[in-house]
Design brief:
73% helix, mainly alpha
Length: 190
């Protein structure tokens, strides 16, 4: 979906700072527009929240893509994906939580995170770093669901968890690349 950044970014910033447990009037007053304008643009509070979460996911995926530009292979890209989710959980917690609720409630088939994971997994297959017993998209759901579940109870992703996620899909070449990454350094508490 395309968004008018000038109109939606102040609302995104409001939700980042204050969360979702406020009235539309409180938000309208803070972002200096009328409640009527919010309803004219978004029809309902629920639709506004869905649009903001979708916009936030698009922005988060853009950050992920920028980080991944410096990755040498699919294993490193997957690490950056996990790091970005951890960052979102710790620094953008209100939107992370709302995104998780939407994801788990609706389990959307074409969420940006699933599509991005599927792309990384397919790259890993081409690089002979990953192999799958099922379709990469199926594993993408498993991967994302387990990561979101972990981040609900903790603010960091532990080494053991990363190994749990990676072990089933790494080829011998993938295991060598994985072994070369200093996971503790990448995921240290920030």
């Amino acid at each position: 979906m395309n968004y008018n950044n000038i109109k939606i970014e102040p609302i995104l910033k409001y939700y980042l700072a204050y969360g979702f447990n406020h009235s539309l009037q409180e938000m309208a007053d803070t972002v200096k527009i009328t409640k009527k304008t919010l309803f004219n643009r978004y029809i309902s509070k629920e639709n506004l929240e869905l649009c903001v979460v979708d916009f936030w996911q698009i922005k988060s995926n853009e950050r992920m893509a920028q980080r991944m530009e410096y990755a040498n292979n699919a294993v490193e890209k997957l690490m950056m994906f996990l790091f970005e989710l951890q960052y979102c959980k710790n620094k953008e917690s209100y939107l992370f939580q709302k995104s998780k609720e939407i994801f788990l409630d609706k389990f959307e088939r074409n969420s940006p995170h699933i599509l991005q994971l599927e792309e990384i997994f397919n790259m890993g297959i081409e690089e002979e770093l990953f192999h799958f017993d099922s379709y990469p998209k199926v594993f993408a759901y498993f991967f994302l669901y387990n990561t979101l579940f972990l981040l609900l109870s903790d603010n960091i992703i532990y080494t053991e968890f990363i190994s749990f996620l990676f072990d089933p899909i790494l080829t011998e070449n993938g295991k060598l690349v994985f072994k070369d990454i200093d996971i503790e350094h990448v995921f240290k508490k920030r």
